[in-house]
Amino acid sequence: MDLTAYRDLWKTHGVMALLASALIARLPVMATMVPLSFLAKDAAGNFGWAGVVAGAYSVGMAVASVVWSRLADRRGARRVLLTTGMAWGALMAVVALLPDSWYRVLPVAAALAGMFVAPVTSALRASWPKLVQGARLRAVYALDATAQELLFLIGPMLGAIAVSFASPRAGVLACAVTAAAAIWWFALKQQPRTPHDESDGPRPTALQLLLHRHRLPLLFAFACMVTGFASMSLGIVAFADEHGNRLIAGVLEMAAAAGSLSGGLVGGALPGRRDSYVWRRMLAMTVLTAACVFATFSVVALAVMLFAAGCLIAPTIGAIYERIGALTPGSARTEIFGWMLSGGMIGSAVGSAVAGTVVESFGVRYAWVLMAILGLLATLSLIRVPPHRPAESASLEELAVPA
Question: What separation in angstroms does the CA of 241 have from each of 236, 267, 340, 371?
Fold first, then answer.
């Protein structure tokens, strides 16, 4: 391991402030889902309606994320973030203040709020190539992917604490106010919009951006990964239910998350003296995932294998982020990450539905069989994607070759 890359990132002006502001801006949005679900359940009297509301929110976010990301490339990320951040906070406050008797309106209000989720994630990942290059760029994407695991661990917990010690309404309101302030802070960290650089070439259309010989496989691989994660999560829940102790699910999720955190930190600190192929990381993760199929006989064995497989999650995601950022013109970089987010959300919904059918039909271990098959498909799609090379210069445009 070589911690030089992390030390360089710490010393690079703007990097840590941007990462910290993005994490704080995304945290209350992540935490919202728990109080929102309980708010819908309390109003309607059943968790079925909570699922409808959460689904409507996710659909709204998936539909609009690309639009906001594309607009950020054209009008500037700062303006889009300020507009959407304030609108989302206001709409979530409205959701929180709706009377219980209006519970039938909640799916519409939630979908509308979802459509105004600020493109913080896309803007952050599009900003990295403007601040760092070379080995530091590889390290910052790994650090970004690793930090995301903290959001998944802390966000829902904060939402649950707000519900437990106050109420679902108070929790949603707190998230709305906090997110509005945090997104404002993150927006001010964005670099002012500059005139379009003609050296980037004309701005690509959506089809030109997506139907690219390298970008499309990367997007497909990321969607396969997220679909696999949804299958894994459902498999963990089914495994815990099969053992009659739902607390097992939390332990196993933490094992995978701890592995991802460890792997991401180690991956970002590797010296990177050789070409780094994304498909190799994906294949290694797939092999370890497949091993989970044979570890379902014991809670301890499955926890160990989930930790091992998790060690490849953040490094693989970070490598996908880095490659798609390097292979996309600067004029469309925010948009491509918006497409990635939408594809991931669709993959998550599909993965949960398909995994549920697979588990019911064949058994718990087949949730990991499904994840391994998806990992293999992702690996095959990535074979022709060019690697990250240590000698890559700060100029990313030479890699953003036309389709």
Answer: 9, 34, 32, 20
User: How confident is the model over 32-45, as a mean pLDDT?
Assistant: 83
- Pairwise CA distance, residues 170 & 270, whole Å: 44
What is the rounded distance in angstroms from the CA atom of residue 122 to the CA atom of residue 18?
Answer: 13
In whole angstroms, give the CA distance from residue 166 to residue 175: 13
Per-residue CA distances from 390 to 47, 135, 167, 293, 395 (Å): 51, 7, 52, 36, 13
Q: Distance between CA atoms of 116 and 103, rounded to whole angstroms?
A: 21
* In the predicted structure, residue 323 carries a pLDDT above the cut 50: yes
Question: Tokens 């709409």 identify what position?
Answer: 91
Q: Angle at Cα 196 formed by Cα 402 and Cα 130, nearest 5°?
A: 80
Residue 169 to residue 102: CA distance in whole angstroms: 14
pLDDT digits (tens, 9 = 90+) for 158-205: 887 888 788 889 989 999 999 999 999 999 988 766 555 444 556 777
Task: Tell me if residue 395 falls in helix, strand or coil.
Answer: coil
Do residues 134 and 394 touch, judged by C-beta distance below 8 A? yes
CB-based contact 219:324 (threshold 8 Å): yes
Q: Are 327 and 399 in contact (CB under 8 A)?
A: yes
